Amino acid sequence: MSETVTSVLPKAVLVDSHCHLDFPDFAEEVDQVVARAHDAGVGLMVTISTKISEFDRILALAERFPNVYCSVGIHPHEAATEPETDAARLIELAKHPKVVGIGETGFDYYYEHSPREPQQRCFRAHIAAARETGLPLIVHTRDADEDTANILSEEMGKGAFTGLLHCFTSGEKLARHALGLGFYISLSGILTFKSAAELQVTASHVPLDRLLVETDAPYLAPVPKRGKRNEPSFVVHTAAKLAEIKGVSAEALALQTSENFLRLFSRVPREAVFGS
Ligand SMILES: [Zn+2]
Ligand SMILES: [Zn+2]
Question: Helix, strand, or coil here: 49?
């Protein structure tokens, strides 16, 4: 009984569940960005696919760094311009062991860079792939609370799948709906903004075992880095804010959100986050 409690608990490390390391913003220094994340206590990052036509570049990043995993999917912005992609193609690409999620997919009615019809067709293909592979669906939703709730419920009725609402900024009603379907809620640097009072209240109501943190880097740097290019190491600031909101220590928040991540992203080996 001489073993101390700290030696049997896993080291508290954070996960950046959503970033875009393939974006040109990082081209010059992706090695340094990944190293800085590690030094900041970010044990693992998931670089998220937005274009199927550039999936090879995303996979190459995941293959290059042991602590970088990736998803496969088409962002709703690109639904009309990317090659038409069915569930079978997504399932095929998702066979690679470093592919751990399906997306990002969903509805973006704020920018509406693609018309709604192709957004919906693309979303349904991703849902079918998530259902078939058992990998989590990474949902982007902006100004589309009702349609997002409806499609998730309707598709859940055809057969279960898991997932999360990423960079959550929607209303509490959608949060409750998603939680009711077994989904998780991922919070970005927006949580730290002064203007995010409503989001902070919503976050306070989400059970601690359903929360994830992310950067969505290179966008949306949290306070005190707001306005700078975002990067995975900055997820510590979002986690600190969330810990404050939930009334827990930074260590407890890191442990809990990383446990949540591993439960949802079940293809990621535990050692990849906590070491062995
Ligand atoms: Zn997104
Ligand atoms: Zn994204």
Answer: coil
pTM for the complete prediction? 0.95
Q: Give the CA distances from residue 265 to residues 26, 28, 36, 134, 262, in Å, rounded to whole numbers and listed in that order.
A: 25, 29, 23, 9, 5
Q: Residue 49's pLDDT is what?
A: 98
pLDDT for 1: 46
Q: Is residue 198's pLDDT more than 90?
A: yes
Surface-to-core class of residue 23, CB atoms within 10 Å of its CB (0-12 exposed, 13-18 middle, 19+ buried): middle
Q: In 79-183, at which residue ranges do the beta strands (DSSP E only) sit? A: 99-108, 137-142, 163-165
The ligand minimizing its distance to the Cα of 47 is 2
Query: Helix, strand, or coil here: 264?
Result: helix
**Shortest-distance ligand to the CA of residue 48:** 2
Closest CA to 82 of 131, 28, 37, 121: 121
Ligand sitting nearest the alpha carbon of 105: 1
Q: Which amino acid is at 105?
A: T
Question: For residue 75, how far is its CA from the centre of ligand 1 (angstroms)?
Answer: 7
In three-state secondary structure terms, 260 is: helix
User: 231 CA to middle of ligand 2, Å?
Assistant: 12
What distance in angstroms lies between residue 217's CA and the mean position of ligand 2's atoms?
8
